[in-house]
Specification:
18% of the residues lie in helices and 20% in strands. A three-stranded mixed β-sheet has the order 1-2-3, with no helix packed on it. It contains one helix and three strands; from the N terminus they run βαββ. The N and C termini lie far apart (41 Å).
Length: 71
């Protein structure tokens, strides 16, 4: 079944997911989280699929915590 069936894809209720391709760089991923936060729409996860769409095979998940810079 498609992953989209199970996930709310809007910011309503504080849940927000974006589908991205594996080629998305770390800096671009940070920008997605930052821009969403600036719009008061927090993205909880980036869902990595082969085609960057909800109907693609899930390859991985990226959270904001995955992108925190380590000191």
């Amino acid at each position: 079944e498609e992953l989209a069936t199970y996930l709310p894809l809007s910011c309503h209720g504080g849940n927000s997911y974006l589908f991205v391709t594996p080629s998305l760089g770390t800096g671009d991923a940070r920008d997605l989280f930052d821009k969403a936060y600036d719009r008061n729409c927090q993205i909880k996860l980036l869902l990595v699929t082969h085609n960057g769409k909800a109907d693609g095979n899930l390859l991985g998940v990226v959270s904001p915590y995955d992108l925190l810079e380590k000191e």
